[in-house]
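Objective 1b. Sequence-to-structure analysis of Helix-turn-helix transcriptional regulator.
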Amino acid sequence: MTIEPNDRLKRARERVESPNATGQPLSRQELAELVNAWIRTHKDRRDDLNANYIGKLETGRIRWPQDPIRREAFRAVLGAATDADLGFQRPRRSRSTVADVDRQQFLRAAVGVTAGAAIARSSLADLLAPSERTPVPASIGMDHVREVRTAASAFGSWDATYGGGVVREAVTAQLIHCAELLNARCSPAVRRDMLSAVGYLAHVTAFMAFDAYAHEDARRMFDFALLCAENAGDWHLRAKVLSSMARQAIWCGDADGGLTYTELALVRADRLTATEQAMLHTARARALAKLGRVEETAAAVGVADDAFSRSQPDNDPPWMAYYDAAQHAGDTGHALWDTAMHGHFRSEARRRLAAAVAGHDAGHARSRAISQIKLASLVMVTGDPAEAAALGTQALDWSGPIKSRRAADDLRDLRKLARDHDRENAVAELAHRIGGAVAR
């Protein structure tokens, strides 16, 4: 498929004068910064568009920003009445299965990068790049499926401990190679299992991108993971992918979209384990909390608690091993945190977040740190600032090796809340340390 440049967007950008150079058109980086500023001002949300992303839009590599808030921001900044005025075109959905399409081409479009394109950015990378790519076998069996599952599990453990950070592009290259295995000859049973295994790896890679705020990459990889799950008939993987898509949407300020994803995942809840149902009802509670629907949030937490009380880990797929009592306490605590900050269920939110912190081990360092930061923020607003400072300091110590932009932004939020109490030495010291940590 030929990629056509988006000349409409380029012309719209060039019609706007640069705020930094009189008589010059707006640069790609300046457009990205204006869109980020509009989203921050009008939607109270952080975004990190840059010149590279604008370049992908203008060259046609990305034709449709999936985030409606981003499209609204572009229209506002560039004075456009419709998405079409900016050349944004919604992709047409195909009913074809993964087996019927050029999987390599599809994945490259979904991920937005190829191994070759990734290494082309650096002459050092060119020097270190292998002269021969790992060959894709003509036929595959269950040994290949197990290898992909093992890789996904290993990368998932790394992500849970440290965040995607420095390994994200390496995992993306691994995903591209593993997806090419779908072109190999195999039995229908192996094809189904390989679709699930590649979908699982795509989910891990997408979540790493989400944690690194590479949101467009994450959305495309989540879409690919969902396509794999649906073509494999894997309802368990489908539920997990939709749950993560909901979490990303909620984080990006689209709580209504997050709620929709959870409802889609719960369409056939009878096919899911009790643990999976608890995970989805918890995500639903988080969306409802962001929408300000307090009583419905509490009810959804209650349904999640009921489902989790029936959890039988032996019945769960391998990727659900993370969802233990600590994770459930943390996720429901996060949902109630939004209500607690407005005066509802404060003690319950605090109890659950504290239970999550106490229950998470070193293998789930990111979750432990984020729950502790949320707990410190809640105590900073509703309790003793000195206690909050102690909690925040401990969270900061835990966050040291974690490369998570979500954790970093939560720390920035804690620093903002600390400003009302910065006359206390411990609080002032915490704010100073956070400033140094998140500047890195």
